[in-house]
Protein 1
Amino acid sequence: MSHEQSAESKKQFRSFVLQLKRLNPSWKPKDITNFLIDDAMLALVPFSSFGASNDSVWYRISVGTCSVEEIERIIVNLRTALSQLT
């Protein structure tokens, strides 16, 4: 993945998290984390694990060892979970 693609992916994910907060204004960062892990089935680590504040909505997600097919399934899981919110 090129630097430009990586930057765009980060921007899209941040936009996604902000959209979750707009759809569910009462959600705390822990609610967003639980949604991403339980409903969207994403494996992630909240930045609070690296010393950021507990109210941070930044996450570390790695797809470095995933195949393209696995990444496509991840995207489908995410879209399915998001469709349940609207």
Protein 2
Amino acid sequence: MPPVVNPSGMGYDKGMTVMETRAVQIERESRNLNAFQHRADVISHLIVNTELPWVDIAIAIDQLREEGRRLFPQKMELFELIYPRRFERLWQQWREAA
């Protein structure tokens, strides 16, 4: 069976199959997720390995939150469950304990 091609041609490059379009979407989502995770890792690094004050860390967290809202608006509840607690826990373990 040949690949399904969008008959209207709208929203697709000529000759691009629906499957190829989905692959492009998955690749873009993967790049966005990797970049987002890298930014979260940078914040973790700033907490653990620098003397940056909490106010600056909080600004970085807010920027990450806004990036998450832009890239993954349907996942913001998950963001709030994971990332703020992660950063607060790191702060308590590495800064307040020191």
Protein 3
Amino acid sequence: MDGYVDEKNAPELEKMKPDAEPETKDDTDPHTIKGLSTNFLENTTCHGIPRVISERSRWRAALWLIVFLLLISYCTYQTVMLLTSYYERDVSVKVAYKHP
């Protein structure tokens, strides 16, 4: 049974070929930084980011990225305005000190 090839030993035979092309790592390989970041961005619950990554058209991906960045900017602006308003409020403090 030396020349017998079945589904079990076919991958080993492909690896033994001297002219076999090396395996290329794609964007979904979890052992690369690009693969990890792509996996995170495609599965994040942060709305809008998976649309930027999964969109086939570059124009639509750019549109989703612009919308996402505009909304993050608006949220940041609102947070800064709220904190500024909170910390600008005057505070009255009355301290009484009795010397023993």
